[in-house]
């Protein structure tokens, strides 16, 4: 396990508050340049194809549904990420955030390849993620804020960081890695997907680490603290139903494996993120 993976699991993701945000952003930018160089096209997926073909049909159906959720999410955030870069308030911050944009496209590429080479089919339609759908409005608000004064820009950035780094990456994606591990990875299945997730998690360590550090700093201002908490609270009902939806692949419904325990994992991750930002356990 790399240091980064350990940090992701322990929740100890947040770079020090002692240095300035620009120093941290530049350090993460340099880390992305030097270490974020994995190639989604280079991961060996041959064993995954064999594993998938011999999987129980229920676990095959669930895997297609699960990976569709990841592909949809990675692609959606990649396509909509530019306003987060544009609202960065310095060259250093924008430089770091630009590495995140490229990395989200790399994650998208990995899952596109997985569908083509392992499943031999397209992603399925209709996997619901309301928190992702809400990015459409978020992007509009953030772009509008670019035309406004510094206070409005900062408020839009705080809400954008909460929505994206704080919830989509910090709660939903992190829970997804746990679900993969519980259902497939811990059984030694799908080593290519396990490696893809390990690489993605390293990238996410930088993304979530930077985002949570910003939120922790912004939360020192009571107006921003209220704003951050309101976004978490507004989205909590949508977050919790993520794994409760029916799993339907090509018109056939599949059971959700008992190891998923979506609601329980999501609730824990939600509480962990609030603790990261506000420094105390949250009442959910
Ligand atoms: Fe990603
Ligand atoms: Fe990310």
UniProtKB/TrEMBL annotation:
Entry's Gene Ontology BP terms: deoxyribonucleotide biosynthetic process
Required co-factors: Fe cation
Entry's Gene Ontology molecular function annotations: oxidoreductase activity
Residue ranges of coiled coil: none
Name listed for the protein in its UniProt record: Subunit beta of ribonucleotide-diphosphate reductase
Organism of derivation: Paenibacillus naphthalenovorans
